[in-house]
Amino acid sequence: MSKCRITAVWAAAALFAGSALAQDTDAMRSVNRAIEAMGGYKLANIRAVTIRGRNSSFEPQQSYRPDGDAIPGGDSSFVTTLDLVNGRARTEWERHLTTPVARVYTFSEVVTPEAGYVKGIDSSGRTRQSRDSNPPQHTMSGQRLAVMLRELQRSSPQLLFAMRADPLALKTLPDAFAGGKRLTAVAYASDETRFVVMFDQASGLPARIRTVDTDQAWGDIDFDLILSDWREVGGAQFAFHQIYTANERVVLHQTIDSITLNPPLAKDLFDIPAPRRACAQPPATHDVEYQWIFRRMLAGGLLDTNELGFDPRMGGLRMEELAPGIQQVVGGNPNNLVVEMKDHVVVFDAPNNETHTAATLAAVQAQYPDKPVKVLVLTHHHMDHANGTRGYAAAGAKIIVGAGDGAYIRHMLDSPHNVRKDALARKSRAVEVVEVAGKLVLSDGTRTIELFRIANGHAEGMLIAYIPDAKLGYVTDLWAPGRDTEFGSARQRALVDAVEKAGIKPERFAGGHGAVASYPEFAEKVRAAKSPAAFQ
Hints:
By secondary structure, the chain is an alpha+beta fold.
């Protein structure tokens, strides 16, 4: 069922009682009961809603230890106005993010079935369109718009009315067990996606709304919206407590403060400026990275392009030579380091996702056409630096990680990817994973790479690298060479201590973020700082 049809269903929902499409099936009975429990005709007569609320985000794949406690991402407040008749939404955001550094983003977000638009800065990953606009603004990528539309559908009563209007798309599933309860489960397969709606057997209200998504690190996962704290507003019932989980790990905890029914809608409330609308993208219809986009939006680090890790309008990914046979892959968010050996290539880090990996491998092959990528070194397990790992494994690389990260990476490589098969799922090859407990030396007789697992407060299995013939180090997240303007943080001090302990003498460091900068100058500034900087 198309988005346009869904909005038309809502407008005609008052006719549901005598609908000729209604069938006396278990699935339809569950849907009918839920609509009645949520207010019946009063629910159907709601044409617009304004919702005020707060949420807190968490990212399990940014933990200190793999599979450890999720790091809180920050708190936000929002005011969302939904035009349920036309399928449009506008949200005013105030987002206070805490990792990796404290940031505040205040912006407006408009979503329509045809286009999406952001006014203001909503992310540290800004596209060319955002950077070239004054004031900052940009249209959403087709990938992001598809995610926004799906999540609006998931959280709206529209979903139930769409299910009622399309009985042939419904199927009763075996009862589910979640939150200590037995739930009645109904599958709804629309043109765009497949929802499983689970109903509380006592009240008939929706309790969970699930999709099965592909996550780059975890494979196929259950992504659930959990609904509770139902309250009456204008004769209809709404869930004032909402939790989003990825494989039962909380990624968003949301509280609704107030709901206003049928507010007046300003004529231009959902307008997208004409110059922006002219170049806006329609929603993507296949290979949508739902998990990556949803959770990177929460983290304030989404680069809003269909490529997700780089912006073609800013030149895309490109190689910059740092020394003979050593290239930094820049133009994305974040970077790679590429080191040429006698008969192969070593790549550091696997940013973002398979799309980013494929683009990096293509650039490496163009630079070194006769040398395959045989080794991938992951500095640590965090999603923005490791979630493209499977693409390198499919290309034949062995994976080197810090001690403690091995089990996580092996699980990543072995996880099922049936919802959306990637290159490794299609190839299904065995992959060697090597863990570095202290120091590991890679050498082919012509060049040496030294790897060190170091103590730090950012990620337990962190590796740094040193290439002696170039006197060049490589670091991720502890220092962003050429970008950091404050010195003395705990992360930076950890790097300086590690270099001293390793007994190496780097002249420069390249960064997974930033560019390249003098290490002696950096170390001097860190040592001179009297106390750690405010950021950690």
